[in-house]
């Protein structure tokens, strides 16, 4: 059963009302708070890092399972805390006003407690079942997402997307150190690939929702700098992405058809970024770029898996 939590009276305390009870939706609210798409994509990136590093799901099964459970708890808990932090600005945006906390479907303090416990448990599992490198990197990722991005930069600086991207680039590196015991050049290249991918992806999304961000007072790059400068930033990061992706083969982490796949996917991405300066409809271009960024990511993750020296 779900009620609605609202602030009542002059003391600002949270009270529960039951005007619209929805049987069986409680678990869906918690699932939504964990942002399952983000959690699954980060877990997949972590698994890809583990496999690309030569990790074995047979001989290292306890480590692999510990890594997977730890990253899921860590990311889902961080997402819950992000929802809790953003509860004051989410009602101002069209695409976020129907989320759980703006709708008052769960108590904010309960969400905060569960989020903190999930993050702590995730880091603890990584430390106990995997290694200190995985736990430390997980802690750094959570710190950047929860504190530096959500609490601070998201509200005050156009650097929010770029700096916040550090947290999204950590999962494959966690997978890598889980398999090898420590980071090395291959793991850092995976980190950079995910790091350079994120600005173009999220800048395109911000261009599609620029009025939403402006209304909420969030200083996203296209809100403050405009579309022309945003397109230049997108081109910059896509240009950095292509040679970085090729470096993974140079260090011997992958073989086979990887170089052809990364060249094809990266070249199309670069051409689309350049096309933004010539296509009249910025909305159509932004939507096309955003969708292709997802295709690029899925294609590259598949290339990592199929062309890596995985241990099996």
From TrEMBL:
Any one cellular-component term (Gene Ontology): plasma membrane
Membrane topology classification: Multi-pass membrane protein
Single GO BP term: heme O biosynthetic process
PROSITE patterns xref list: UBIA
Classification via Gene3D superfamilies: UbiA prenyltransferase
One Gene Ontology term of the molecular function aspect: protoheme IX farnesyltransferase activity
Membrane-spanning segments: 63-85, 106-127, 133-152, 159-179, 185-210, 234-251, 257-278, 290-311
Regions annotated as coiled coil: none
Localization per record: Cell membrane; Membrane
Principal EC category: transferase
Record keywords, A-Z: Cell membrane, Heme biosynthesis, Membrane, Transferase, Transmembrane, Transmembrane helix
EC number: 2.5.1.141
Catalytic activity: heme b + (2E,6E)-farnesyl diphosphate + H2O = Fe(II)-heme o + diphosphate
Function in brief: Converts heme B (protoheme IX) to heme O by substitution of the vinyl group on carbon 2 of heme B porphyrin ring with a hydroxyethyl farnesyl side group.
Subunit (UniProt): Interacts with CtaA.
Family: Belongs to the UbiA prenyltransferase family. Protoheme IX farnesyltransferase subfamily.
Protein name: Protoheme IX farnesyltransferase
Gene source species: Marininema mesophilum
């Amino acid at each position: 059963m779900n009620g609605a939590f609202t602030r009542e009276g002059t003391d600002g305390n949270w009270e529960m009302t039951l005007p619209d009870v929805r049987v069986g939706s409680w678990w869906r609210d918690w699932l939504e708070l964990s942002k399952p798409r983000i959690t699954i994509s980060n877990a997949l990136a972590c698994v890809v890092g583990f496999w690309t590093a030569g990790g074995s799901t047979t001989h290292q099964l306890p480590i692999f399972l510990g890594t997977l459970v730890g990253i899921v708890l860590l990311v889902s808990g961080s997402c819950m805390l992000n929802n809790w932090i953003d509860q004051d600005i989410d009602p101002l945006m069209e695409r976020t006003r129907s989320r759980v906390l703006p709708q008052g479907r769960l108590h904010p303090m309960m969400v905060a407690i569960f989020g903190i416990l999930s993050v702590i448990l995730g880091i603890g599992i990584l430390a106990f079942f995997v290694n200190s490198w995985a736990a430390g990197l997980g802690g750094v990722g959570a710190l950047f997402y929860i504190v530096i991005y959500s609490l601070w930069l998201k509200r005050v600086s156009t650097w929010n997307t770029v700096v916040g991207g550090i947290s999204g680039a950590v999962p494959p590196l966690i997978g890598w150190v889980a398999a090898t015991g420590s980071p090395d050049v291959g793991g850092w290249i995976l980190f950079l690939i995910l790091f350079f991918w994120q600005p173009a992806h999220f800048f395109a999304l911000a261009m599609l929702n620029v009025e939403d961000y402006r209304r909420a007072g969030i200083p996203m790059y296209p809100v403050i700098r405009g579309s022309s400068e945003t397109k230049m930033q997108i081109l910059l990061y896509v240009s950095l992405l292509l040679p970085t992706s090729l470096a993974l083969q140079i260090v011997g982490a992958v073989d086979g058809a990887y170089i052809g796949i990364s060249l094809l996917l990266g070249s199309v991405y670069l051409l689309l970024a350049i096309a933004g300066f010539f296509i009249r409809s910025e909305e159509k271009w932004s939507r096309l770029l955003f969708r292709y960024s997802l295709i690029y990511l899925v294609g590259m993750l598949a290339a990592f898996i199929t062309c890596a020296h995985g241990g099996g």
